[in-house]
Structures are given as C-alpha cells and as structure tokens.
Amino acid sequence: RGSKSRTLAPSGESVGWRLPSLVGEKEGALRRKLEMRWAALPLRRLRVQGAAQVQQLSTHASAANAANASQVWESPTKLASLPLVYISGEEMTRYAAGLMMKHWVEPHVDTSEWEFFDLSCESRDRTGDKVLRDAVEAGKRVGAIFKEPTVTPSKAQVEAMGLKRALPSPNGAMRRGWNGVTISRDTIHIEGVELGFKSPVLFERHAVGGEYGAGWREVGRGRLITTFFPDSDDEDPMIVDARRLSDSRNAAVVYHNPLDNVETLARHFFTRCLAAKVTPFVVTKKTVFKWQEPFWDIHKAVFDAEFKEKFHDAGLLVASKDGELQHLISDAATMQIIRWTRGGFGMSAHNYDGDMLTDEVAQVHRSPGFITSNLVGKTEAGTLIKEFEASHGTVADLWDAHRRGEATSFNPLGMAEALMGALSHAAELKGGGGHEHEKKGHDATTTSLKASYDKYVVALRKALHNTFRYGQGTWDMAGKDKGLTTEAFIQKVGWRLGRYLAEQIDFDDGIVPDPKSAKPSVLLRRNAQKIDLQKVEALFNEFDADRNGSISLAEFEEMMIKLGLAPLKEDADIADSRTKVQEKTTKV
Length: 588
Hints:
By secondary structure, the chain is of the alpha/beta class. 43% of the residues lie in helices and 14% in strands.
C-alpha cells in the first residue's frame, strides 16, 4: 500500500518512496519506529557539521533560508518517556500529526511508554470497536491522553468505506469512561499577532447531560407521563411531569442533567480564571428553564465559599455589580461574545449552550483551529484525567486535495497545543500532581523531569509562534505567496525547535517580525472563500449614506447599532436581561 511522494534522502537526492499507511496497533508502532530511524540519518550528521555552519549566519532570515528544514537537530539525550495515551484519527489531521511526531517529538522525546490506539473508521470497524474500549480503559489508567480528530461516519460514508455498521461518535464513550466533568475550550494567542480576542477567553462546557443523551419517540395524541423510580425501596416513585398531547404528531423527549460533578466543574473553572486573571461568568437560561437553577446555585456556593475573596483581591470582579459573581442569560452571552473582543473573561455553561457558544468564540477569534479542547475527567481517587485534542475536525477537503497530489497548507496550531497540553499533564501526573484538591510533593528526579518537559513545551510553543511571526506561517496566516505548505511549515518549526533546545544561537534575538504577520487579513481564512463579496459591498453601500466611498463615524455608529454589535455601557453590558418577559409553561 505504499504510495509515491518526493522524499528527501540522507544524501539530498529525491526518492519516490513513503511508508505505507499502516492501520493496526502494532503496525502503527512499527511505522513510527521506522520513520524515526529514517529521519535520524541526516540528523546525526547535522550535529557534527551544524555548529560550524551556523556560526557563519549572522541573521535569522539568512539562517532560515540556508537551513534545510528537513534536517532537525536531534537531542543527544532524549527526554525520558512518560506514560501517555496517543489516539490516532483520520484524514488530513492524521497525516499532519505523523509529520509533527517525526519532526517535533521523536528527535527529542522517548515515546517507548506511550500507548497507541488507532480510532480510524477502518480500525474501529475491523475490531468491532474493541480498539475504542481499549483506548478508554488505557486513558482511565494513564490519565494523560492526546487525541487526533476522528470521523463519525455518515450513512453515505458507511457505504463508501464498506463498513459493516454505523459507528457512534467515540466522544460519548470517552466522557462516560473517564467520568467527564467539563470540556475546557480556551482561545490560543500568539504574541505579536493580532487575532480576534485581545486577551484570553476561557470556557467550561459541562461534559455530560442535556440533549446529547436524550431518549425520544415520535408519538400521537394522548397523555405523556415521566416517572422517576428511586433505587431505594424506602422511597416511592415520583411523577416528574405529566401533560396531554393534542397534536397528531409529537416528538417526546426525555433527558437529564447530572449535578454531582458540577462542584468539581465550578472549582476547576474558578481556579483557571483566577490563574489567567479573567473575570468569571456563569451562563444559563434559568429565568425560563427553572431546572437550570441548580447549576448556578452550585457555582455560586463554591465561589462564595472558596474564591470570592481571592477574585476581589485580584480586582477581577465587576465593581458596578457589588463585586458578586455574575450570571448571564445564554441569549445575552451570544451577543457579549461578539462585543467583548478585548477578551479577559471566562464562561461556564451547560453542555449544549457550551457547545454553541464555544463555536461562536472560535469564529470571533479566527477559526476552530485557534481554540483548545480539553476533556477533564476524574478518577475515584480524585486524580484528574485530561484528554487533549484540537477543536476542529479532520479537515477532509485538504485531505482530498493532498490525495489528488495538490499542495496543501494545514495549520496545526490547535493540534500542537493539544500535544503540548498532554505532555505537560503527563509530566504533572508523573510527579504525583494532578489531584483535584492538592498536589503531592515531588522528589528531585520527578521535579527535574517535569522541568525538562516544561522547557521542551516552552521551546516548541516559541518555535511555533515565531514561525508565524516571521511571516513563515501557513497560507491562512501568511498568504499563499509567502506562506508555507503543510510539510514545509512543520519542518520549519521542527528546525527552529532544534535550535532552541540546542541553545546554540538564538537567531530570533533582535529580529523584527514581518509587519504583515502581526495582523493577518481575515480574507486569508479558508472559509473566506465562501463569502459573497458582492453582498458585502451592497451592505457597505447601505450604510454609506452620502455615497462617497467611505463610512463616517456617524454612519459607522448607525451601522453598529443596527447590526446589534455596538458595545454597551458597563452597567448595561453585563445586564442579566431582567426585563425579559417570563415565559410560562402550562402543564396538564
């Protein structure tokens, strides 16, 4: 199953060979070992010649241009391996993750204790989803998980792939198996590059409950009764709801929201907001959906008992609201996310609201590739289980282009943050940390190991961010003329990472970043191709009242107010929508 591709051999000539796309668990491990040995051949030679060569390069630009990005400095002593679960996915993100492993991880990190699981559709179908169950069990035992995006096949894809049956999303099994508490989604920021929000935005999405686990039936006219039967024989059954259905067709839906883990969610949320120095808000629709009241009550109780004084001392509470924890109606939150582009806030919400609102955060910031996604669960002993992945999908359109032999430019920023997060948590767990309430003491060895991984993560993030800042980013950030392809970008980051870890010459010192990279145009986004620019021009003309080809301040104010984007005064900006008419539900 090998395929042709232009690959640089150790001698510098091209060879038409690439490792086949192996899918089995053992085959996947073999593939990575083979790739690591293949990559290592030119790397060892570079360690001998590199020091003398780079001394002749006086600027960062000349170094970047002269360096062969496929030749990466390999650490003479790799970081000791940590237990970590690596879950492979599908399509473009799987391809890019393989390149990341080859150029960023394997030259510097021992992965012998990593456990690899292939959650491609083919693998799940072939094993009857045993591979998913095994991955969940391994994640529960290890506690640190990196996951590539996966495919939940549609009916058409089931037929096209020749699968024996439809496959459910693996996320449900993971959240159940790891006692999922929250999905943390935060904006990713690159120093010196303006994206959407100026300061960090943190989000906690309750990982369980709500519509996602709903049971339903289509029914006709009649009475619908929902009854609760306690496990205890000492308690009588309870009618939760009873109503008469008068329509001939009805969708009867039942779901619930677990509340036992909301206290853990709240404590995790406030701890992160305090560390990031952002103002916390709790989002519900409790004015109408009274069953959402406990979610707010639990947050408020945890906040008042454990965090109120700390937030007050840090100056992170809204002074005009008497320094109390603020509640936002979910409707209002959708508008505030658009308005509060300075960032500096955090939100905690129910499962469905969190899903919708974090999609909005991603679009305001730039795209789903610029926010993190971190599932947080908990063992019975209270140790946190953390699974890290990118918040975007498998990027099927770029994969199709890659398979057609076309050049692609996939931005791996979200996946890189996930990988760094998983490594950091693995190092924390190795040192006895990661407990919900407190961290155990570290001995000298584990402290040194964690420090080494911290150094590696800092170097990788710096290499990644500086590659964007120097105008060498992917097409969505640097444009197609100057930007790099998927392969070239990952190789360039790997080369820069090697330089930082080697601590030889810091070519970035005193170098002025490309000014165009400081504020990448929104027109470079891949989804910008879907924008109807003629309609945008028509919208501009609508507000350009005097038809002079520019919009004055007065015209701009009218436009912002009409579109509902005008920022409100502080007192009104955090309004709790108290004037909203209370909706009522009549039960029969």
